[in-house]
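Example 3.
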Amino acid sequence: MQEALKMASFASSKGEVPVGALIVDSQSGKIISQASNEMEERRDPTQHAEMIVIQKACKLLGSGRFWDKMDLYVTLEPCPMCAQALSFVRIRRLYFGAYDPKGGGVEHGPRIFESSSCHHRPEIYGGIEESACAHILKDFFERLRGLKSHETSL
Amino acid sequence: MQEALKMASFASSKGEVPVGALIVDSQSGKIISQASNEMEERRDPTQHAEMIVIQKACKLLGSGRFWDKMDLYVTLEPCPMCAQALSFVRIRRLYFGAYDPKGGGVEHGPRIFESSSCHHRPEIYGGIEESACAHILKDFFERLRGLKSHETSL
């Protein structure tokens, strides 16, 4: 999760919502792909860190399935889009940091992995390095609000 | 939907699950982007027709939001991943063809647009050209099963 936090920090420095993710081969411990949010850079709200690491890993592995040895680490609870994508690639374990009551799709909202139309459910470990993962997001949004109120007062 | 069906037919000819999608500017009637499934070609199960048209349109429009004049046509009920992506780009209307009780995320499964964590719900019109959209899928899977049983009998 420390590596994912570094990616989140990198996102923050570019003005992106600070979320970082990586995929690890559980057998070798090797990082297969890593990414941070690129929604602003690509002007595309589907460019979440999880979607990017999945797509990168598919390219590298030459396969979009049989990922039963791969684990995903992400600093924020995945949204419903990313949770469904993780089900499609049959990820083995999902480790996430901060919980997301407003936009999460794992422990909140539609709880994708509990749905009848979800055909693969990974093992789920939430709240890993929760304070650090939540802090980087809180700090980012506080600075953003600060900038906006500063602009308004000019 | 006729254009989306053509895309689905194109997918079928490449051995892809035949689903086609396009995004239309409701004011000009112009097609902004169109695509079919590319899951096999890219070896990536997240490459649904809807995700590809959204990502293409974001590039073309230079923006991932304020799509309140854009409509999406797709031959199959979107899965939860694609439904959430459509919510993120704030699509105006969703027109879909066949219903998908096993994998759909609009009228089935987690019903993404009805979730508390969904912050934009398009107008939804299901069952458009339903027979033709369902037929092309049924035909594809029947041929696939035929090929498999033929291989088994060799």
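The first strand of chain A starts at residue 20 and ends at 25. The radius of gyration of chain A is 16 Å.
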